[in-house]
């Protein structure tokens, strides 16, 4: 080593100290880097855990939102959610169904305006809207205690309740009228027998006086007419509740159509049968149920003097209002319909809108269906026709279907053939139909 490159001992010590300090600084920096790396890894782990927790919370919130939305849409009560300005922010499915409007036409509108357009008011009194009867109430929507954040409009469907109340009132009314009619019928029948006896004696004694004999025969005919009326009254007040068994429905309906041939051939009516082949039989009294079907057929034909479509349909139903499995039998026409003011009275005895009607036809139908532990309802709109719906108990021990050799086409061909042969139908008269 030359003198020029030789370091002074002090410089060498300073350089060594500098290297030593640099080594310490590098080591410290390395430790800091390792600590920072560990901290970053820890923060990544914590961030990942936070993200997982947030995603779980969001998923739970979304599930809860969907659950609450499902609950809201599953309610049979219509719900309108309003903000503080009274504008609709949320509508459930029941509200769109009861109001007859889609969600888009309701949202962002003021509830007061919507109800006014539909001619509805917030009231506990039943209000008819289309096919429904509703009551409307209002509740405050509170986000927290004493801090309202809007309102709720609740639309309650009370249609079935009103129908049940109407049926109950009708039942009470019919029972009371039936008791009165029954007493009157029995009281009239006793002297009627005496009148018929004396009329027959007069006919016997006046055989040689034809000019006077006609009066006695007219008395006898009038007595027979009164007797038929009294028999109808007694059927209404005391329908037979026994002798029910499994009856093949198709022959029963076809027999009723055959008996109605005298009316069918006078009117251009298109008759449509829709009998579910899975329900070949019903549990009934054959004669009585045939009277029910016949009465409703004649009633429908008389409602369509210019012609129309008569539909007879039998199908299964999920309606359990009878407390047992049931089937649904409907008879529908497309006539002018029934005046809404008359709907609640059409099953009342002696109520009729026909000039020659006695008003007993539908009363007897109601009594027979009631004796079968069934129920009959009517739906009608002016200009849209009338549908009578009969629910009948259908026990589960229904026998297997039997092959039916009678066909509708064969009977239809016979209708015009039998039109003049069928002049009487048991007890019920054509003019007795409502």
What does this structure look like?
The structure is a single chain. The chain is of the alpha+beta class and 434 residues long. The protein has 3 domains: 73-157, Beta-Lactamase (2-Layer Sandwich); 162-237, Helix Hairpins; 245-432, Heat Shock Protein 90 (2-Layer Sandwich). It is 49% helix and 20% strand. It is built from 11 helices and 12 strands. The protein has helices at residues 9-74, 93-99, 103-106, 111-117, 159-205, 210-237, 249-259, 261-264, 286-302, 361-371, 408-418; strands at 78-82, 88-91, 123-129, 132-144, 147-157, 245-248, 269-275, 281-284, 308-316, 326-333, 375-381, 385-393. The chain has a 5-stranded antiparallel beta sheet. Helix 7 crosses helix 9 (286-302), helix 7 (249-259) runs parallel beside helix 11 and helix 9 runs antiparallel to helix 10 (361-371). The longest helix is centred in the first third of the chain and has 66 residues, at 9-74. It is rod-shaped and about 180 Å long. The protein starts with 8 loop residues before the first helix and ends in a 16-residue tail after the last helix.
């Amino acid at each position: 080593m030359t003198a020029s490159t030789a370091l002074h001992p002090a410089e060498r010590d300073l350089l060594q100290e500098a290297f030593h300090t640099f080594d310490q600084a590098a080591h410290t920096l390395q430790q800091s880097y390792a600590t920072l790396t560990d901290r970053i890894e820890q923060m990544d782990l914590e961030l990942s855990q936070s993200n997982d927790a947030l995603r779980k919370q969001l998923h739970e919130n979304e599930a809860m939102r969907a659950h609450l939305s499902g609950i809201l849409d599953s309610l049979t009560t219509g719900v309108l959610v309003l903000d503080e300005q009274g504008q609709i922010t949320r509508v459930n499915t029941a509200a769109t169904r009861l109001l007859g409007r889609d969600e888009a036409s309701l949202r962002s509108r003021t509830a007061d305006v919507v109800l006014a357009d539909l001619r509805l008011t917030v009231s506990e009194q039943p209000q008819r809207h289309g096919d429904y009867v509703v009551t409307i109430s209002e509740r405050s929507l509170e986000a927290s205690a004493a801090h309202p954040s809007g309102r709720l409009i609740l639309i309650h469907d009370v249609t079935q309740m009103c129908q049940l109340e109407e049926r109950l009132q009708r039942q009470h009314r019919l029972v009371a009228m039936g008791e009165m009619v029954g007493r009157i019928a029995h009281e009239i029948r006793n002297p009627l027998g005496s009148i018929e006896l004396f009329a027959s004696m007069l006919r016997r004694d006046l055989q040689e006086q034809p000019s006077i004999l006609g009066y006695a025969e007219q008395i006898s005919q009038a007595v027979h007419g009164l007797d038929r009326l009294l028999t109808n009254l007694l059927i209404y007040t005391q329908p037979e509740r026994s002798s029910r068994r499994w009856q093949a429905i198709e022959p029963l309906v076809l027999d009723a159509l055959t008996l109605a041939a005298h009316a069918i051939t006078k009117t251009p009516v298109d008759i449509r049968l829709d009998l579910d082949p899975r329900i070949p039989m019903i549990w009934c009294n054959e004669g009585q149920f045939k009277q029910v079907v016949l009465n409703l057929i004649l009633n429908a034909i008389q409602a369509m003097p210019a012609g129309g479509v008569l539909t007879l349909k039998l199908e299964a139903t999920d309606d359990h209002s009878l407390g047992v499995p049931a089937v649904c039998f409907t008879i529908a026409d497309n006539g002018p319909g029934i005046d809404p003011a008359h709907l609640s009275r059409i099953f009342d005895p002696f109520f009729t809108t026909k000039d020659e009607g006695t008003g007993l036809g539908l009363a007897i139908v109601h009594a027979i269906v009631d004796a079968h532990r069934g129920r009959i309802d009517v739906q009608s709109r002016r200009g849209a026709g009338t549908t009578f719906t009969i629910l009948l108990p259908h026990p589960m021990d229904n026998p297997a279907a039997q092959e039916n050799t009678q066909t509708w086409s064969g009977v239809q061909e016979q209708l015009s053939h039998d039109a003049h042969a069928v002049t009487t139908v048991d007890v019920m008269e054509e003019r007795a139909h409502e």
